[in-house]
Each structure stands twice: as structure tokens, then as C-alpha cells.
Amino acid sequence: MSLRPACAGTQTGTPQRMKTPPIPQPWGEQHTPRIGGRGAIFKGGSVHSERTLPVTAAILAGGNSRRMGHNKALLPLSGQPLIAHVAARLEKVARQRIILSNDAATYQFLDLPIYGDIFVGVGALAGVHAALTYAAFPLVFVVACDMPFLDPRLLRWLYDRIEEADVVMPRLGGREEPLHALYRRHRVLPKVTARLQAGYRRVVSFLPDVNVRYVDEAEMKLVAPELRSFRNANTPEEWQRVLSEWEENSM
Questions:
Q1: N or C: more exposed end of the chain, with fewer CB within 10 A?
Q2: Domain residue spans of the chain
Q3: Could you tell me which CATH number the domain at 53-250 has?
């Protein structure tokens, strides 16, 4: 099972410089956060609770799911699409949740604000850019759409470590996990924009330009010993492992 973030784009060849596109309007009226009753798995983007943190949680759902063969965000899990479980877990942590996708119609059932990429067709880095652009809060969790085991305890622990850093970035096996990380919007967004304008696509390409607080496995295991929060599904085989683990933990 992969512990690497889904849809983390790759850099190939010489970066081609890009112009900054105009910022599009959000999808229809979906951008207006609404307050919903607690306990609902599908509801508006804003949640006001003393138990939630003053952060935006952005779910990236713009990948092509090539290795899976079809849209993994919609894979059925306990009677709900996979992405719905991700959104439900984030409801316990964040005061705002948003979806990043260029296919608004597919995710309207979530009743969450949906935003498209500003830099279109350049991968997950564009998703991070859009998340930071549209977030209502200064701190933004960015996660992938295929992480049903997201651990609210670990996310809160990451939040507590932001201090003066621009990014709190987990590392597993020495490799960054940018789609399970916390970003300081006003400091990181200009650096991501500059990298996109310069033609970069790697989702971690901007990290040398910002102040990163790395957290490694040994630290995180004190909070989440199995590090299940990072488990995702990029292939049918990985999805079967997710299903098996989900069933084991549901018994």
C-alpha cells in the first residue's frame, strides 16, 4: 500500500515559463460557505465549533486516477464515496472545508465549496495553489481525496507545530508528504505562484523557498503509532488493502 500522496505531479524536462492566468469565479453559488447541522456527512463548508481549529482543509480531487482506472474519489466505502469519508474526518478538525476540482458537477453532492485550478493542466502543484488562493483561513491543511484513515489527532498535532514556520511537512522514509501537510497561506502562495509561472510542476518544488518545519516518522508515531493517516489508494491492489483494513477496524 502506498504511503505516497496521490496526484503528486512530476517535473520533467526544462520548466516552461507561464503567465499568471486570471483568477476565475468560483463554481456558481457553491463557493458560499453554509452552516449545517452537526453529524451530517455532507454539509456546508463552514463549521463553527469549539472543537474545530481556525483552519481551512482543502481536499484535492483533480487527479486523473490513471493507475486506478476510474475516479478513485468516488470508490464506494461503507455505502459512501471515498471522498465523503475524507470530508467527514476533516469536519472534526477544520472550520472550513473546500474541494479543489475542475469537475464541479461530480462533487456537488458533498455540499461543500468547490474551486477549479487557476493554472490548469499542471498537476497537484496547481491544486495547492488554488487551495491557498481560495482558503478563508490563514492556515490551510491540504490533503488528497483518497485518504479515508485521516487522523484528526495527527492533524491537530501538526497544527500545534506551525509556530513561526511557513509549512509543517511530514516525511515518511525521508520523503515529503505535501498532500498531508499544513501551509501558511500568505507566505507560501507567492512562492507557489512563482514556481508555476517558471514552469515547475513538482508539488514540492517550492519548498526551498519557504521555512519548512519537517516532522519525521519517529515524532509522528508518538501520536499515531501506525501512521494510518497517510494510507491512500492509487491502484486496484492498494484499494483492496484499504478495504480489508477498513473492514478489520469496523468489526
A1: C
A2: 53-250
A3: 3.90.550.10
